[in-house]
Amino acid sequence: MDVRTNSEYLDFLAERLDEFSRTFEEFMTHHVENSGFGAMAVGMAPAVLPKDGADKARVGVLTDELNRLAGTLMDLSNVTDVRLAVKGAGVLDPVVNWQRMLEPKPLLDATVVRGSCLQAAGRLEGLKAKAKALSSPTIEPSLLHPLVWASAQRLWNDGHLRQAVAAAAEAVSGQMKQLTGRNNASDTSLWQQAFALADPQEGKPRLRWSGDSDDQDVKTMQAGLLSFAPGVNMVIRNPATHVAEDFTEQDGLEQLATLSVLAKFVDRCVVVSVDGATAPDIEQALPQPAGELGRALTRENG
């Protein structure tokens, strides 16, 4: 990724540069610039000299802090193109090399360091605006279906991406099994039977997309879920559970998002039994709509 379009990194550089500038100004309160009327051996003596009676201990602390901050800003010149061509020394980064103003035959002075900081700050501001304009939507894991993220979060945060996807897939399958009251076949088969277009049978309730069953859009959703749900189980749950092959964070996020979509679809379904009853009327074990059950499962898994 081009760091010049990475808003988070640009913010980091801007914050560190602001700290550097403020620390540099405090450092300069203990020094004088060797320039102008009364300057001593300009070009030979350091460009910045300690004041009489300067607090050496504080100067030491500020020097260390400036060097630390300069280290965090090692990429600043590459990102902002703020550099200084110095005859006989090549191209210098004025921030990283700020101490050169304290050396005999200095290559920098305080005015150059200040000006470079201001110019870099301005360029960072422009780059941040450009990065914001070019930014694309991202997936926020915590906003996925709560059942999916609650099941995956701990493993995901520990870096076990494949296992996190597997856990989320198991949770979504568990949601379906709770709703249908079934656990007597493979998950793929249970998904196929749950969304089957045939009427429910004894011990085999169906999940039906809510709405008028004669409506064409409802029929389309029902037929789509019959293909989608088993497909998700076969191409996401099964490999994540049985194939010991890790994948990238992007792969994992996309698969969690797909599971989240399936879980949200299940939330919008009703359970229909052989006698035509919907979820609230089947048994006391299923007193809630699918969405409420999903949230209950989330609490239990959390």
Summarize the structure in words.
The structure is a single chain. This protein is mostly helical and 302 residues long. It has 2 domains: 3-134, no CATH class; 141-301, no CATH class. It is 57% helix and 7% strand. The strands form 3 sheets. Strands 1-2 form a two-stranded antiparallel ribbon. A two-stranded antiparallel sheet has the order 3-4. Helix 5 runs antiparallel to helix 9, helix 6 crosses helix 8 and helix 6 (161-180) packs across helix 11. The longest helix is centred in the C-terminal third of the chain and has 27 residues, at 216-242. The radius of gyration is 32 Å and the shape is rod-shaped.
Strand order within the widest sheet? 1-2
- Encode the helix/strand succession as letters: HEEHHEEHHHHEHHEHH
Indicate the mean pLDDT.
88
Low-pLDDT stretches are 279-302
Return the structural class. Answer: mainly alpha
Silhouette: rod-shaped
The biggest sheet, with number of strands, parallel, antiparallel or mixed sense and barrel status, is: 2 strands, antiparallel
Q: What integer value in Å does the Rg equal?
A: 32 Å
Helical fraction: 55-70%
What multimeric state do the chains show? single chain
- How many helical stretches? 11
Give the tally of structural domains.
2
Compute the number of strand runs: 6
- Give the termini distance in whole angstroms: 35 Å
Percent strand equals 5-15%
What secondary-structure arrangement, pairings included, does this model have?
Layout: H1 7-28, E1 31-33, E2 48-50, H2 56-72, H3 76-80, E3 84-86, E4 90-92, H4 110-134, H5 146-157, H6 161-180, H7 187-194, E5 206-209, H8 216-242, H9 249-267, E6 269-272, H10 279-282, H11 290-301
Antiparallel strand pairs: 1-2, 3-4, 5-6
Helix pairs in contact: 1-2, 1-4, 5-6, 5-9, 5-11, 6-7, 6-8, 6-9, 6-11, 7-8, 8-9, 9-11
